[in-house]
Prior knowledge:
Elements: H1 16-21, H2 27-30, H3 37-46, E1 49-64, E2 71-83
Antiparallel strand pairs: 1-2
Amino acid sequence: RTNDNNGGGHPPYVNAAHQRRNKHLDRRYLSSIDYTWEEFRYMVLQCGFEILEEEMYIPARYTGDEKSMMKVVYHCAFLVARKKKSMDG
């Protein structure tokens, strides 16, 4: 959903100052949404799934140099979920 009153059809949470600072970025980047694990987990449960397995803080190296101290490591989450059977059918 976009809001035409904030300049250029960006989502409403992207304010004008943010747009000016990041005008060099691809528009798709500015319109992406990043959810926390807790928000995503809540949505999974609200959509009728049951979580069968869940693991947190799995290290995943994104970039780095073995010869230097520079590295980027994400701490990922993993889940296995199954859609609950409907009582109607």
